[in-house]
Amino acid sequence: MELSEIRNQIDDIDQQIVKLFCQRMGLAAQVADYKRENNLPILVPTRERQILANVAQMAGPEMSNYTRVLYSMLFELSRSYQNKRNMISGELHEQIAHSIQNTPKLFPRDPMVACQGVEGAYSQIACEKIFQSPSIMYFKSFDGVFSAIDKGLCQYGILPIENSTAGSVKKVYDLMIQHNFSIVRTFRLKVDHNLLANKGAKLSDIKTVYSHEQAINQCSGFLRNLTGVEIIPVENTAVAAEMVSKSGRTDVAAISSRACAQLYNLENLAASIQDKGNNRTRFICISKNLEIYPGSDKTTIMMVLPHRPGALYRVLARLYTLGINVTKLESRPIPDREFEFMFYFDLETSIYSEEFVQLMCELEDLCEEFKYLGSYCEVV
Fold this sequence. Notes:
Blueprint: H1 3-37, H2 45-59, H3 64-85, H4 91-102, E1 112-116, H5 122-130, E2 135-139, H6 142-150, E3 156-163, E4 167-168, H7 170-178, E5 182-190, E6 194-197, E7 208-211, H8 213-218, H9 220-224, E8 230-233, H10 237-247, E9 252-256, H11 258-263, E10 267-270, E11 280-287, E12 298-304, H12 311-322, E13 325-333, E14 341-348, H13 354-366, E15 369-379
Parallel strand pairs: 1-2, 1-3, 5-15, 7-8, 7-9
Antiparallel strand pairs: 3-4, 3-11, 5-11, 6-9, 6-10, 12-14, 12-15, 13-14
């Protein structure tokens, strides 16, 4: 048989499939109407399991797994369509709608903001890009930033969440499980690392280098070429520069920003030492209250999924069905719950879209637990 003939047969079958699919979705709509009138749940796991078993048996051994996958997707499409017809505004959607209505139209200019580190930290640089003239309060740890928001010491906090070279800042993700907050904005900062030392120091003199572990990872190629040098992680790149400055020694150096060279009166022994030229760190700006500013087109949620095969696939299939793009997926272990994980999703969808509203109304159906972390736009 010629290829063109095979393709013609496939086209004929596709026409039949589309016609039957539309008929099936029409019947699903009738089921949705009946369930709404009789106050019945959309999801009936026992029926779905029975259908999957039946179609797998009908398909035969070679095609059974493929058929299961096909019907699993079909169930998600059907359930999404039913939810759309029966969509009821839940508590979360009402909170979001209230926040959209009551959040000021203009982003704050001069709030009190919590940053980790000391003067010259990259968090400070990101903070001054996000806000026009912020008042900054510094804390030693990421936990201190979250606590400042919890206690109302600061209106906002700035935290690094991921780097294009070194990956996610896992400590921040772990703390996100423990604290209640809302993401109100994000910013991608181009990070330029430099080897800073006291006046008169030479590269050959350096025996110890201080910096944050993320900066150390981002400059691993440069550091491998230094012989006999001890690398010591500290809590912040600006703290490292401050330590070197206060030591007065010429055999120690810090990996830090150009701003810290001037701030702490240090010499730049080697500029732009990061492994990749396009090295960017993404920072989140958090608030205790839910604030959703105009133009928000990104959303972050956390989910605890059932510990069984296909749980993550089911969520991704629903997002795909709604046409919502997943820009980041991160998993972190849940404290005191062995082999259970919290999944973080960064999503691209306007807060004004029908798909966003539908997703917010369906979240409870998709997982065991969930946490809405806010909708925001990203400053570039």
